[in-house]
Amino acid sequence: MSSAYQELNRFRTEEDGNITIFSVMMIVLILIITGASVDIMRFEATRAQLQATMDRAVLAAADLDQHQHASTVVTDYMQKAGLEDALGGVDVEDGFNYRVVDAHAQVELDTFFLHMSGFDRLTAPARSIAEEKISNVEVSLVLDISGSMRNNGRMDRMRPAAQSFVNKVMTEQTNGITTLNLVPFAGQVNPGDILFDYFRGERPKIKKNENNGWGNGDQDAPGGSLCNNNAENADEGASDPSCSDGTTTTETTEPAAEDYFQPWAQAISNIVIYFDTDGDEIYDVAHKIQGFPENAPRDTDDFFKGAVAYMMSQDGRLQHADQFLGISIKGGKQKTRYFQVNGDENGPESDIGPKKNRGKIPGNTYSYGHINFDYWAQFYTSPNPETPPSDGTDTTEEPAPGNSQNVNMPSSCVEIYNNEFATTEMPKSDDYVPHFNFWPYDETVMDWGWCPGEDTTVQYYSANRQQLVDFIGDMRMHDGTGLQYGMKYGLALLDPANRDEVGHLIDNGVVDPQFRGRPIDWHDPETEKYVVLMTDGQTTDQYRPQDPEAPINNDEALQTQGSGSYYTMSSRSTNISNLLQQCDLARLNGVTVFTIAFETSNSAANDMKACASSPSHHFHVHGDEIADAFDAVARQINNLRLIQ
Questions:
Q1: In which band, very low, low, confident or very high, does the pLDDT at 119 lie, cut at 50, 70 and 90?
Q2: What is the CA angle 478-484-488, rounded to 5?
Q3: Which residues cross the membrane (predicted)?
Q4: What angle do CA 447, 450, 454 make, to 5 degrees?
Q5: What is the DSSP letter of 184?
């Protein structure tokens, strides 16, 4: 008995093997915890994959540009990720200007180790809701059409990128909700002749009794070019390179008193005839004649009457002789020139006016061989009224005394002065921007002018997607880079204080009446306002000709004329300061500003970055990256977002 007792007491007090027992218990616990970690990691990885796939799926399905049914899009995403069995359901809510997609799913995951703790299966749930909702949206798309855009194919890349942007921002669902102002800018911005007149812009008048602004026969013309100086030094000017790029010219006889055109040194390629249908003496219709044979007359005075009469017979809008303004001529190596007829005072000297001999024209194109000029000449009536004779003798046709004929200006820019950049108002001055180029230009892709032409004006509050797409496709480049002017117009067109201007455009048939009352108030909770500013260059100095009405400004670049022909109205640094002042006003008024610096220098890109609402709203891109930038901006404007 005592022996058994002793054995039990020894066993009770014996400590050998305690560590082994503890170790076995700890190993089992460690296996359970480690195994649970593996199961939990598998669970979390599966849940994260499921959630990420669901998020992508509902974002794609909620896109208003998505033409497939939302549930089909979500199912397709899940199938490609190998999770089709996990999808529980898709709920879709569609409205006139919104779409909400709600999807839920779950994955059942068998455990490897947690089943030892009683958990045989883990459930990974996921739910995603995406919404694209288009509230009232006002967008100002500000595009650089300066001459440098012709380098490295930039314009060719920008056009489709901007057109795609328009197609994404303006859809059937956004009709009546989203409006887009398209603001092309070069050295300045052309608001169009209707707003130009509304701003009380003063157009230049045709100069009387002046030799094209080039001085008289006893003095040299500016820039040393004498080709338009029909005085005693005309022979010297005949071989001047600025007249025909050095091409030898033939000697011509003294023009008759009633002549309007200089005989052309080489064969004429085409002419464009300009007409005014609304009485403002600025062209709004232009018809072209091309296909001139080598033996065709080179003096337009020989056939223009038949050409004008024929054009008027073909166009029902042309009913009165004074609708005919003038003609521009292109041919050979000579510079394209414009010659005024209506109200002309300087004979066969060239004048300030449009030169649309390349690119799109607001009219038709005819073949030289299809017109019987001699036959139609009998129906021609001069646009210049005759001065009544006092003695009954015959008189030649000449403008009546006191005639204040406007120059047929090819553009309608209004000067904007430095103090105006402290506000978001439309231009307040009465001054017009003269017609000139500062740098030489490439006639194949550019039109002459620091101010863009009448076919490259601001497009206001448009809801017509195709019209905007076509407009972008037809834009031609001009001289200078006035970023601050582009931003000024883009922001002013979002300012509710400028509703009168929009109302004036509606009254004149430029803007759809459904947009009366726009711009909507700043900070309106149902309205989003954006400026998208794109440029490829550095803001330039603002140059102006010393004589803003000199006809030479239509033919010779100011830089070629010489330093005495121009002055600097505002420096580049001042212009950048004005730009950034407008960008600050945009942020203050709740306008989101996106900027796209396209193949610019780092300093120019930094200016654009400083203008953007934040660094994430700025894009510095090269080559085809511009398409990605416009696409990213369009998606943000369309307000596609996850809401759960």
A1: low
A2: 105
A3: 20-41
A4: 60
A5: E
Residue 198's alpha-carbon distances to 69, 193, 419, 546, 602, in angstroms, are 49, 8, 21, 26, 39
Q: What is the pTM of this model?
A: 0.76
Tokens of 592: 């989101």
Secondary structure (DSSP) of 451-497: S--TTSPPEEEE--HHHHHHHHHH--BBS---HHHHHHHHHHTT-GG
Q: How do strand 618-621 and strand 592-598 relate by DSSP bridges?
A: parallel
Cα→Cα distances 88→43, 79, 111, Å: 18, 13, 22
Chain segment 134-153, per-residue pLDDT in tens: 678 999 999 999 999 999 99
Question: Looking up tokens 């497009």, which residue turns up?
Answer: 459
Residues 269-298 have pLDDT tens digits of 999 999 999 888 889 999 999 999 999 999
Q: How is residue 291 written in tokens? A: 């296909």
Residue owning tokens 């995406």: 130
pLDDT tens digits for 231-262? 333 333 444 444 444 343 444 444 455 799 99
Looking at the DSSP bridge assignments, the partners of residue 340 are 326
Question: Taking a C-beta distance cutoff of 8 angstroms, is the pair 497, 513 a contact?
Answer: no
Domains of the chain: 17-133 (no CATH), 142-213+411-630 (3.40.50.410), 270-378 (no CATH)
SS3 category, 426: coil
Contact 50, 124 (CB under 8 A): yes
